[in-house]
Amino acid sequence: MHIAVLVTNTDASAFAACHASDGQKFATLVQALRPGWCVTSFDLPAEEFPADLGAYDGFILGGSPASVNDDAPWIARLLHAIPAIVALGKPLFGACFGHQAIAIALGGTVSANAGGWVFGVTETLMTDPAPWMTGGPGPIRVNAAHSEQVTRLPPGAQIVGHSADCAVGAYRIGNKVFATQYHPEMTPDFMAALVEEYAGDMPPDVVTKARTSLATPAETDRMAGWIVGFFEQA
């Protein structure tokens, strides 16, 4: 299987340069379970876009400090490409910014979090899991770093998970679109480093809560299994 990762991260800081790119993070995540899969990354803010959407078996759309409501040309191009991917029948997984971009591109809305930042390791409740989401209904611990969220679903979308802080924690559209507000690609070490990197820019109570949350890491292996299962069933 050949997966294209559409990288949306606009962070060009020294911190970002010291860590794996988002494309590398997602490749590591899926290839840990499916080492034979090919993963190709495209840096969308740098104007790298797939020349032929039909050449890939599926797409992953990652996170970003940018807002999906920004008017950057690369975001407009992405929002145009998402319906084309769906029209081709290609499976599309979105995380954080990707989750939000898919929603907007297909007719939903994204707005600021009513409670401000959700940051660190948090828990979301899977109430109506899709067939590829093994383990049944129940909570899962996930990495969070967002100040916006989906506030209206696109037509045909179904919520599969939510929390008190995020009403649309995860959704799907049939068996071809699967998206989550969270970050399965982030390792515990990276999440801890991210909390410290942002500590000076966040309200003290948000930072304290984030640091405390790291005591129990996110269940990234479980979510990796869901992502792989999603692509395989599609």
CATH architectural group? 3-Layer(aba) Sandwich
The percentage of residues in β strands lies in 25-35%
Q: Specify the helix fraction band.
A: 25-40%
Number of domains: 1
CATH superfamily: Class I glutamine amidotransferase (GATase) domain
If you consult CATH, what is the topology?
Answer: Rossmann fold
Tally of strands: 11
Give the overall shape: globular
- Please give the CATH class: Alpha Beta
Tally of helical segments: 7
**Low-pLDDT windows of residues:** none
Mean pLDDT value: 97
* Rounded Rg: 16 Å
Spatially, the strands of the biggest sheet line up as: 2-1-3-4-11-10-9-6-7
Structural class: alpha/beta
- Main sheet summary: 9 strands, mixed
Protein described:
The chain is of the alpha/beta class and 234 residues long. It has one domain: Rossmann fold (3-Layer(aba) Sandwich). It has helices at residues 14-17, 22-31, 73-87, 97-105, 188-198, 204-213, 220-233, and strands at 2-7, 38-43, 58-61, 92-95, 109-112, 118-126, 138-146, 148-152, 158-162, 170-173, 177-180. The protein has a 9-stranded mixed β-sheet, sandwiched between helices. β9 (158-162) and β10 (170-173) form a beta hairpin. α3 (73-87) crosses α4.
